[in-house]
Specification:
mainly alpha; Arc Repressor Mutant, subunit A; 3 domains; about 70% helix; elongated; disordered C terminus
């Protein structure tokens, strides 16, 4: 079990909870998964903070804070780490939302239906309504 856990960690970062779930499918009665993961944590091989940092770095250019927070919650990251990560994401969230919008549309909405469609797209990417309003209400000469 220990070797399998090391192989997983060799490929990418995992949260404590996510790696525990992954290992449970292969566990036998004699395996003590929490003990193995606690040992990895003490050695610095498993870190929820490092995992959170990696997720934020990989996702912040494509997704908003709501989607990133949801993904971190699903992976079992503590609320404290999530709040810290969200603060970091919110620093550039408006710029990231504008960039995501430009790649998809790059034309200001001309009707209410078009505005709603573009807003739903940005909302599905995890951006908040206040950010969406700022992105979609820009003047056309800004583009």
């Amino acid at each position: 079990m220990r070797q399998r856990a090391l192989e997983y960690l060799g490929k990418r970062e995992y949260s404590y909870h996510e790696l525990a779930q992954k290992l449970k499918t292969y566990a036998e009665e004699t395996d003590d998964i929490p003990a193995i993961l606690d040992d990895f944590k003490k050695r610095g091989w498993l870190s929820d903070a490092r995992f959170t940092e990696q997720i934020v770095h990989a996702r912040s250019h494509k997704f908003g804070s709501a989607k990133i927070a949801h993904e971190l919650r699903e992976k079992g990251v503590s609320q404290e780490l999530i709040e810290s990560a969200i603060e970091q994401v919110k620093d550039n969230e408006l710029d990231n939302a504008r960039e995501v919008w430009r790649k998809k549309y790059n034309v200001a909405p001309k009707s209410r239906d078009e505005w709603a469609r573009q807003a739903r797209f940005l909302q599905s990417r995890g951006f908040g309504f206040d950010v969406i309003k700022k992105v979609l209400n820009i003047k056309t000469d800004d583009n």
